[in-house]
Specification:
alpha+beta, Tumour Suppressor Smad4, 2 domains, seven-stranded antiparallel beta sheet, six-stranded antiparallel beta sheet, 34% strand
Length: 310
């Protein structure tokens, strides 16, 4: 964020029922107010606070708003919780057509997205207010489901779009195209279309590759494929992916977006997935690199071999 991007109002969103965040919510609001910044609390977050009833009418500069209204009012958002809380807010910002940045503060173990620790919170905010924050542009996915007689409202996702069976269903049959070229017909528990950001989420659990967020690519990962030669594929981010489920009356196939929203697919549906027009702006603390996060989160070895003698 440059010095020209003045921040005067910051949205505060905490994980649902996260009581451990309450004292920090109060402190953040006071810290912002002392610097002339107005805090806007997401309504469920405000409800966590002991004085929630008086919060909206407070003369001290606090406001309360629902998520969709909040993103229209603020210059940035601070999320306290885990990656799921940040994903929910990221999808909300995208749905509103906004480009406001997010600062993710983790409670518990370090997250891939919420990688700011509590001790780093206020130094990170100081950097933002000084116009010196490092902001990463993270690709998002735009997904459209077309039915024989209608096209459903598009969805935007930061991590992934997943086509999957229900717990009691047999494996499903999916045809996959990339840039209108047929790729394969895969029988599996499902298919993940992930961004590099989402490569460390469901994609990683399903055996897909880790892709650094700066790489301009999409990842197609079958979930437990019947044929072991159906492997993950990395394709250019400029490509459009089409997925067509082949269903009969016994099949129950669902599509989900970042694990936050989804619905059941119908026979004849076709899913189109491509890079979204807008990206997520994620505020990154300069104290930790992507590979440091990987080492800590995945418990990789933290020591390097000594350099070879020349």
């Amino acid at each position: 964020m440059s010095a020209s991007q003045k921040v005067s109002r910051i949205g505060i969103v905490a994980k649902s029922h996260l009581r451990a965040a309450v004292p920090h919510l109060v402190e953040i609001a006071a810290w912002l107010r002392a610097r002339g910044i107005e805090a806007v609390f997401e309504s469920a977050t405000a409800a966590l606070m002991p004085s929630a009833a008086a919060l909206a009418a407070s003369p001290d500069g606090y406001r309360v708003a629902e998520k969709l209204a909040l993103v229209e009012m603020v210059d940035m958002v601070v999320v306290l919780g885990g990656d799921g809380t940040l994903l929910s807010m990221a999808d909300c910002i995208a749905a509103a057509g906004k480009s406001i940045p997010i600062l993710g503060v983790n409670f518990g173990s370090l997250g891939f997205l919420t990688e700011v620790t509590l001790p780093e919170l206020y130094p990170s905010l100081e950097t933002v207010l000084a116009g010196k924050a490092q902001v990463e542009e993270r690709m998002m996915l735009a997904s459209t489901v077309r039915r024989p007689r209608e096209t459903l409202t598009p969805f935007v996702a930061l991590n992934d779009v997943v086509v999957t069976k229900t717990a009691r269903s047999r494996m499903i049959d999916l045809s996959v195209w990339v840039r209108d070229e047929f790729v394969t017909r895969v029988k599996a528990d499902g298919l993940i279309v992930a961004t590099p950001t989402g490569s460390t989420a469901y994609n990683l659990a399903a055996g897909g590759p880790i892709v650094q967020p700066t790489v301009d690519a999409l990842i197609l990962t079958p979930i437990a494929p019947h044929t072991l030669t159906n492997r993950p594929i990395v394709i250019p981010a400029s490509a459009t992916v089409r997925v067509q489920p082949h269903m009969d009356s016994r099949d129950e196939v669902f599509i989900t977006f970042d694990g936050q929203a989804g619905f059941q697919l119908e026979d004849g549906d076709e899913i189109s997935i491509c890079r979204a027009e807008r990206s997520l702006r994620l505020i990154h603390p300069s104290t930790r690199s992507y590979f440091e996060v990987l080492r800590q989160k995945l418990r990789w070895s933290a020591s390097a071999l000594p350099p070879a003698d020349s």
